[in-house]
Design goal:
This protein is an alpha+beta fold and about 190 residues long. The chain has a single domain, classed as Alpha-Beta Plaits, CATH 3.30.70.1290. It is about 40% helix and about 15% strand. A five-stranded antiparallel beta sheet has the order 6-3-5-4-7, sandwiched between helices. Strand 4 and strand 5 form a beta hairpin. The chain is globular and about 50 Å long.
């Protein structure tokens, strides 16, 4: 068991599932725009390749996101969230400013995937998202710079019953927040049968 250096309450166990909630800064509803939801999903999937964790479930709400993940041996959930939040913020801000997504080799946190197929595919998907954004909005839009609220809330999953309770919680997000439909929700098929 490893403890978080800045908080005696945060601790880590490899291969233990964790439920995470992260909010946008001042709860601004960035994720009302579908293109930003698609960008987040792309960043999450690429982060999974970088940090080697299992995505059990997620739900993207307009101003907050719930994740249920199982980290592997090498990266803990704080490292995963740091990478995910940092990369999403950077790419969102590049997107709305019309900047390219190619980073310099020396300064990129993803440099181990340079020249790799996964990185090239990731950049291609980011460019498709950028094209959709530019087609819809162009350079004249009113979207603010993206910021996350500092840190995140977490809950270590205790057992299978606790996991199922959090899966159900994610499933009920649209009702809880009175959202139109069940959009931008994912639950691994292994949990759909329980």
């Amino acid at each position: 068991m490893q403890f978080h250096k800045n908080s005696p309450k945060r601790y880590y166990e490899p291969n233990r599932s964790v439920f995470i909630t992260t909010n946008t800064y001042k709860r601004y509803p960035y994720f009302e725009e579908d293109i930003f939801c698609e960008l987040f999903i792309e960043e999450l999937n690429f982060c999974q390749k970088l940090k080697n964790f299992q995505i059990e479930a997620y739900k993207i709400n307009p101003e907050h996101i719930h994740l249920l993940i199982t980290p592997g041996e090498r990266y803990n959930y704080s490292e995963i969230m740091g990478s995910l939040k940092r990369n999403f913020s950077r790419d969102y801000n590049d997107l709305i400013n019309g900047n390219g997504f190619i980073r310099s080799i020396g300064g990129d946190s993803n440099r181990r995937l340079w020249n790799g197929r996964e990185f090239e595919e990731h950049i291609n998907r980011l460019n498709i998202i950028k094209e959709q954004f530019m087609t819809k909005y162009g350079i004249n839009h009113s979207f603010p710079v993206f910021k996350w609220q500092k840190s995140f809330h977490y809950h270590l999953i205790k057992n299978e019953k606790d996991m199922i309770n959090h899966i159900v919680y994610i499933q009920n997000q649209s009702l809880k927040h009175e959202l139109d439909g069940d959009r931008y929700i994912f639950i691994d098929k292994k949990w759909m049968e329980t």
